[in-house]
Each structure stands twice: as C-alpha cells, then as structure tokens.
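Ticket #4471: structure export looks truncated?
Reporter: QA, pipeline team
Priority: medium

Steps to reproduce: submit the single chain below to the structure queue and open the exported record.
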Amino acid sequence: MSRRVLIAIGIVFMIALGGYLPAVSVAAPAKPITITWWINPWRIAPPGFPADKAPTAEDFPKWASDEFMRLNPGVTVKYEVVTNTGFDQKIAAAILAGNPPDVLRPIGFKREWAKQGLLEPIDDYFTAEDKQDFYQYAMDVGRVNGRYYLFPWNNSNNGMGSTFLINPAIFKECGVSIPPLPERGWTVDEFMQIAQKLTFDRDGDGKTDVYALSFPAKELLVMMGWMHVFGARLFNADQTEVVLNSPEGVRALQFIVDAIYKYNVAPEGAAGMGIYDSINMFHQGKTAMGYGGPYEIGRIDRYVKEGQLKEAFPVHITQYPHLPEIGPIAYHTSGGFVVFRQRDAEKKKVVMDFARFLTSKDNMALLKSLLYVTARKSVNKGLYKGSTFEKEIDVYTRALDYGIPYFGTDITTDPIDKHLQAMFEAALGRTKTPKQALDDFAREANKILFKK
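Actual output as written to the record:
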C-alpha cells in the first residue's frame, strides 16, 4: 500500500473520530522534534471530561499535548502551567537566558517582544478562512508594524472591569428591579439609588448584613474600571503624561469614597481588600453585586464541585453604570499564543502547526467550559445557543462592544502598578483625600515613565 494511500486512510480515520487535522501534514518529521509551551492556569475541560468534576489547570494542557503528539508521531510536546504570580518575571528570565518556550500564552501581548525580533511573524500561517473568521480586533492585538505575531484564542477576560454580576434573589428580597434586557445598562444615578436599597440589616441587630457591592482597592482592573466610568484616563491623548489626577479622576475617586463612607453601600476596609475578598463576599450573600463576566458564573459551579461553596445560586450579568454624557464603557481584551523565534525550519513548521492546533475551531470551542467568548466568529455563532447562559453571554458581548484596552492604553503599566494600588489604598483608607492621593500618584508615575 502506498504512502499516499496510508495518509489518506489516516485522514479519514481522524475525521471520523472528530479529531484535529494538522494544517501541514500527518507525516512524521524527518527527525524527532520537541516543542515546549507555557500557559498560565486555565481550568478548561478537555473532551470527555466528567461533567460532575471541576477541571484543574493541568487537564487542558495535558490533553492538548497528548492529542497533538498522537496526531503527529515523532513530535514530543512538553507543557508547563506557570502561575499568574511571577509569570512575567519567569518569562523575562527565560528570554534573558536565551531559552524561552517555543509557544506561550502571554498575560497580555508584549509588543516590545515583536519589536525586538523575539517572536516569529505568523502572517503566512493565517489562511484566507482564518482572516475572515477571526475578529479583526482580535488579530490586531498582535499586530506590530504591519505584521501579525499572535494566534487569537480568547475574546474576553474574566470580566473584571467589564461587567457586574448580580444576585437576583437579593434584588427580589429588596423589591428592586433588575435593569432590562438586552443590555441591562443603568446610569450612575440609577445605580446609586438601587445600591442604597440593596444595603440593609437583614436580622434586625442594628448592623448591616448585606451591602450593595464592595470596592477591592488591590484589584486594579476593577478600580480602574470605575475611574473610566467618570471619563478619567490614565494618560493624555498622545500618551506622554499621566493625567489620572484630572477633575474626572478626582470625581471618580470621590464617588467611590462616598459610596463607602457617606452612603454606606459598600463595606469599610476596602483599602485591604483584594478581588477574592470581594468574590467571597458575593458568594456568601454579603453583597448583592460582584465583579466579573461569564467566567465568574462558572467559578460558582467549580467552587461547589470543589467543596468551597455549599450550593450554587443563579446570577445575572449587568453593565457597569454609566454617565449619560460619556456612555457605557468596559474592558475588552483578546488573548492568544505567540511563537518565539525558531532556528530550525522543520521545527518552526511543527511549532506553527501546534499553535494552529490550539486555536482551531474545535479546540477553541473548549473555552465554553469556562463560559468564555472565543476569537472566532464561526465558533461564537452557535456556542451558547440554547444554553442556560445564552442571555448572560449576550449581555456580556454587548458590553464588550463598548470595550477599551486594559487601563485604556496599550502602554505597559507594570512599573507604576504598585503606586497605582497605593493610591487606591490611601484614598479608600482615608489616609489621603482623593485629590492628594491622585496628585501624589501622578507625580511619581510621571517620574518613572516619562522622567518628568
């Protein structure tokens, strides 16, 4: 039997099994090839995963590695799940040592890597179908000087800074109507009026048992989301100066402080709160609203399966409140996989094929187990149709239509993040007024970023 016939039979067999057909060939490479890839923790359920169990961060990368090796004899795939804490430091050290992974899902695309020649351009590996199927803005995330460097994958984040979650049972208990579909939007004034009704003493002991929401000062995506609501921006229009201490910024931060100390719709102690403190308050019914998108709905189910939460409860997604003169706003991000420079032409071919495998239609659809939206139009079209979460996904994607990049900019804010956090902590802890905190931050940030 000829080699061509054997390959054809193999192709038919894999299609029958619903497997992935490699973009280049099913023939083994001329020599053994080892691919390394790093990914931060994504609790994706691979095909056939038990529905009554919560996937770990290892399940998807192990399955993807094993499946690609099964389909590509002669190829070894070694994966590593890298924790979010210290992720950027680990990859920076690997780059400095000249030994980065072949494939990486970066936490935020680093344009400087492409400019420094560290990444492979991938224009030639986008098919005509890909270019029609991927959202253009998802492709543009990885576009540098007219070339593409990122295989798009996810078309959303966990919803921090993008949308709210609400507990409809508490809304009903307080006689409060949920903002109407399809957008579930509300103005800042409407939001504050509702927030006051959602804050109450349930057991009659004279102490507040349920707050409308919380403000986690240590979660910058959430806090900067609030700043954008009022029209504040981190940088000026030409991105040459930090201007968060603008009148809009002061108004935004004063609103947050007043929500805690004047209107009492959020608990004190916000200066010491991180996002998991906020999430836990929501899960425990201590706040009527939390932060996040579809992924955070999935977290409730996972926590129940893991025994961290006694029972699941229904939630709805709403937008951040907005000022009519500014309009709705949300964070919007697309992520994916980059390929670091390859010295060997045959290995480069295989590595690119692996990146295409990870971002194929079938494998991208696995993001549904996280309630994520994907970067492919064709996959999203029917991914949640008929699902319990169909309306919530629709509200979320509508919010993303108002999306802006994290912090409203593509500039890396890492050097000033700790100062930004300190600013929120000082204002929410009332050790400084909002204006003092913002002025001190802007002065320090401008010294660091722009030598001003």
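Status: closed, not a bug. The export was complete when the record was re-opened. Leaving a note from the reviewer for reference: Confidence is low (pLDDT under 50) at residues 1-25.
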